[in-house]
Amino acid sequence: MSDTHSGTGAEAAHGGAAGPGRGPAGGHVVVVGGGISGLAAAHRLAGAGARVTLLEASPRLGGKLHADEIAGVPVDLGAESVLARRPEAVALAREVGLGDDLEPPAVLGATLWTRGRLRPMPKGHVMGVPGDVGPLAASGVISAAGLARIPLDHVLPRTPVDGDVAVGAFVAARLGHEVVDRLVEPLLGGVYAGNAYEISLRAAVPQLYEAARTGRSLIEAARDIQRKAAASAGTGPVFNGIRGGIGRLPLAVADACRAAGVVIETSAPVRELRRTGPHGWQVRLDDRALDADAVVLAAPAPVAARLLGAESPAAAADLDSVDYAGMALVTLAYRRTDLLRLPESSGFLVPPVDGRTIKASTFSSRKWGWQDRASGDTMVLRTSVGRHGDEADLAWDDADLVRLSREDLAEAVGLRAAPVAARVTRWAAGLPQYPVGHVDRVARIREQVAKLPGLAVCGALYDGVGIPACIGSGQRAAAEVLATLVPGASGGAGE
């Protein structure tokens, strides 16, 4: 599926089909960044009656959400699901007409490729921290020595948590390194493409962080969190996809924005951001400048740091310290008859300690019924390569990444057939890292930004890397700038 929904400079120059929207909020807001956070902000702003211009530096909207196809089969080349029990993504999908296309994944067990073979993902854990050791012992993921270490959690004195601590360090202190290396690492890596021994417990697993500050046993804390989650959980699915791919979501939001009068430009990098008065901003592009009453900065940290360097050096310094992980997704299409012996699961995770090239594999046509129905005689699976601090394999060219993925798949599941098509999607600086101290860093950034009326920031580096969190971040930024708009302000049209 080509990106036929992206806006163009020509469309923006003519104001879009619906014309500029005006309403009770008044004022002109420029949103810098056309990923799902920026689009969510623009959608909320337009709904409140603001006149909105959205500027995206790349030729395509959607950021890390990208639906396309391989061998005629629709696929996601980025994120493929949303957490359904957090409401923002599902609600937005329904608002933009995709409610009937929401579909949960097939109920298939996930596995871990570790200690020489595929092993069932043990149930009853919180991001790898077991609330019940029984399923973990039955899975074979942890050795006998590793299992013998875990019960010490019940007798060790409380591990002090002063401010923040790395997930890996804290869990290892309570349960031993094997739990971290073979269970926590691959699960956290699947979310952040990061290293558990660097990722902040406070930012990544806040429920465990709060429990660790007051309790002693980590196992009991995990059990209590699971019990509360079960009591509050509804009957709906935990995750949802969208028929045709999650990458349809940003395009549908963009269409809704245009219908509301939002002007969208792609291939429009912002070069400079300046205040022009107590309630004014100027956004400079290569060929012109736009005057605005407010700005939502929905750009990655390096871009945000550059744009805020003059107006907020302190925020820019913190933004400049944000690190990102690069990764690649290898999407492979096979004849269905070549995958008859594929295990009955949705895929597997790979602990980095096992030294494999791939970090995970998703059996996409098994996991997503909509894709299986659309694939005919073809089945699709994908692998991921690279994580923060372990990106050497990304130096291989595309053909070699396909070859290395196939070698690991042959060893893991016995798949030796040649794919009918292969595609490598590289996400350089794809995911912001949440190291120890990240929550405080975000608080400092927001404190400095709040000193500049009419400016708000949003995106994956602030409130979570998941799609609902990114949407919520964009909607929060929209609410912040709407509160600062001066009633009746017109916002200049620029030069």
Automatic annotation (TrEMBL):
It is found in: Cytoplasm. Its EC number is 1.3.3.15. GO terms for molecular function: oxygen-dependent protoporphyrinogen oxidase activity. SUPFAM superfamilies: FAD-linked reductases, C-terminal domain, FAD/NAD(P)-binding domain. Its cofactor is FAD. Pathway: Porphyrin-containing compound metabolism; protoheme biosynthesis. The keyword Oxidoreductase applies. Gene3D superfamilies: FAD/NAD(P)-binding domain, protoporphyrinogen ix oxidase, domain 3, Protoporphyrinogen oxidase, mitochondrial, domain 2. One of its GO terms (biological process) is heme biosynthetic process. Keywords: Cytoplasm, FAD, Flavoprotein, Heme biosynthesis, Oxidoreductase. It is an enzyme of class 1 (oxidoreductase). Involved in coproporphyrin-dependent heme b biosynthesis. Catalyzes the oxidation of coproporphyrinogen III to coproporphyrin III. Belongs to the protoporphyrinogen/coproporphyrinogen oxidase family. Coproporphyrinogen III oxidase subfamily. This is Coproporphyrinogen III oxidase. It comes from Actinacidiphila bryophytorum. The lineage of its organism: Bacteria, Bacillati, Actinomycetota, Actinomycetes, Kitasatosporales.
